[in-house]
Amino acid sequence: MSIDAEELTTCPARITLDAAQLAFFDGLPTAAPSLQSELGCELEQGHEGSHAALGQQVDATMWWLQWTLSASEINPYTWCPARQTPTAQSRADTDCALFDGHPGRHSSAKTYWQADEAA
Q1: 57, pLDDT greater than 70
Q2: Which pTM does this prediction carry?
Q3: Dihedral of the CA atoms 27, 74, 56, 42 (nearest 10)?
Q4: Three-class SS of the chain
Q5: Per the CB 3.0–4.6 Å rule, which of 10, 20, 77, 82 could disulfide with 99?
Q6: Percent of the chain beyond pLDDT 70?
Q7: Residue 11 CA: distances (Å) to CA of 29, 48, 91
Q8: What is the pLDDT of residues 74-108, one digit of tens each?
Q9: Residue 100 CB: number of other CB atoms within 10 A?
């Protein structure tokens, strides 16, 4: 089966966590409900810079795994503040589901949108 590039909006890059990364996530105070050993990039296809996938959330901090072809690291971030609907009260389908300062367009569970549309 081939993937139609026009239908794919999320970056197709994937990473398999190594033993140290899995141990880091297991050692966080809030256990992940279902930590996966393979994660996919959550950024928009064609993004600049490193790939990124949410590893685990602990309170207001999201631990994101970021990687390139030669290295990977786990970094703490807060949620991106952009929202499609300014009246949204919680992290919902209208809120950006990425980290603050991410490259490319904002992303919710359903769509990508430009920053100027989030006002």
Answers
A1: yes
A2: 0.76
A3: -160
A4: CCCCCCCCCECCCEEECCHHHHHHHHCCCCCCCCCCCEEECCCECCCCCCEEEEEEEECCEEEEEEECCCCEEEEEECECCCECCCCCCCCCCCECCCECCCCCCEECCCCEECHHHCC
A5: 77
A6: 71
A7: 30, 11, 22
A8: 999 999 988 765 554 555 566 888 999 999 888 87
A9: 12
